[in-house]
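Lab notebook page, bench 4
Experiment: in silico fold of construct C2
Operator: M.H.
Input chain length: 273 residues
Purpose: comparison with the prior construct
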Amino acid sequence: MKKGVKIFGLMFLSLILLSSFVIAADAGVGGMVESLGKIVESIYQKGVEPLAKFMIGTESAYDPALFFSLIVILVLLVSVIWEITDRIPVIGNNNWVQFIVSFGISLISVRFLGASANSGWLEVVLLPNQALGIALMSMIPLVVYFFFVLDVGEKSKTLAKILWIFAAILFAVLYLIRADTLSGAGSFNPATVYLLAAVASIALLFFDGTIRRLRKKIIIEESGRKTIHAAELEIRRKIVQANIDLRDLVIDPKEHESIIKNLRSRLKYLMKQ
């Protein structure tokens, strides 16, 4: 059954790659890529497109972007429903039944979306995912910077505050520079994200000490102790126990490495307090 699932996944991955080639060809990529794109487009129109229309209900005009979106949605649905049905004894105990239920429900759902692509339902599904992608990608730099400053602050609280001030100024300047050039993106100016990041940096500047105390409190509570010294001893005991578990084959080397790395990180933080 696992082999069948792998083949199924490979087929859909191939379909996605085919649609990507078609999109590249439509975008006017020259030379060999354009020629290859035309060949793939022909294969797509004669083989893949009819199958796609039958399976996902894309009976509108040839639209590789729509097809790509529906295939991705189908794969996501199959993955989620597979995980859910795995917890249902009657279905999860039989891999073939689990596959048929997961794929069947997903196929019906995606076919409905494909058939009603022009009615707005597809946009209802896609827009939250677009919003999630924008939110994650725009906040990742600030999150990375946050943990960087948090580590720097363990050695110098003054330097950490300077870094937060620098970040606030940088994001504010970016907002002032980009506010006009990005104003044509719609009713919401994307440059506002820079302004929000500047405000967040200022807030983190004032709450830097509170965040550190909270982090220390969480580490102490997780150790089951009430003082830093007692927490350090408990973490050291857990390190010794992890080494014993590795020796007795209770855990494998990969699990041991992960456990030790986490415990040493907590111990290092407590020892600097």
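Observations: Residues 113 and 119 are 9 Å apart (CA to CA). The longest helix spans residues 121-153.
Next step: discuss at group meeting.
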